[in-house]
Hints:
The chain is α/β, with parallel strands linked by helices. Helix content is 38%, strand content 20%. It folds into 2 domains: 2-173, 3-Layer(aba) Sandwich (Rossmann fold), CATH 3.40.50; 186-272, Pantoate--beta-alanine Ligase, Chain: A,domain 2, CATH 3.30.1300.10. It has 10 helices and 9 strands.
Amino acid sequence: MQTIRQLDLLRQGVADLRGDGSRIALVPTMGALHAGHLALIEAAKRPGTRVVASIFVNPKQFGANEDLSRYPRKELADTRMLTEAGCDLLWMPPVEAMYPAGFATNVSVAGISEGLDGAARPGHFDGVATVVTKLFNQVRPDVAYFGEKDFQQLAVIRRMVADLDTGIEIIGVPTQREDDGLALSSRNIYLDEAERVKAVAMPRALGVAARAIHKGDAPESALAAARDTLIAAGFTIDYVELVDAETLGAPDPARPRRLVAAARLGTTRLIDNLAVDPNG
Length: 280
Ligand code: PAF
């Protein structure tokens, strides 16, 4: 696997990969890779496709009081994992290459970016949309893979790509979980031992609520029970909601619905989501 940090070399590297007529798949990441990221690489490794991963801890998607400075950086381990996973090229631009002096553009996807995490983390999805647009323009992939764990991020990117006629296929990959159900996340390492034990309340509460809503219980009572479970486990809740799986707006039982949640254990913010309906 080639590791590239300069845009002109990236363009050449991607052109070389395309040389045999291959399609290019992009897996954008912020590093600190885990099995969830490897599932994206695995999904991207299709016949006739070469896989480019990017690692860039994007300052624009962190709020002033968020964890940019302590966000885990594991360049060596990440490079080894990507090589072993069969990734063809790693794009790892320095911050100055991504946002040179004078950088002034902001990509903002209205509506779908505004509720849920967008409300709890103002500016976050502008940062995501801006950097993903840059990554798309730099790598020019045919297809890009994102985890369903960041469900709103995936919906925002799908909206952006449709609105801007980007012509890149966006594929969502199901959330990877620990044996007890906790969704894999680079931020799980912030949990201390006691918090890690409590964290399992998140997938459990969502699972109970999703099954209750699916079998016809009133969503409001299922959501209230999920909130109570999380509070009893020691979480501070940002949101626990039932939304339309595509628009993230008001749910309609005739369309796929998603249960989405974000809550904090101590200083660690966990997010998770579950489909309520088959094929949801
Ligand atoms: O999901 C992530 O790791 C990031 O939000 C992404 C998509 C790489 C953009 O920085």
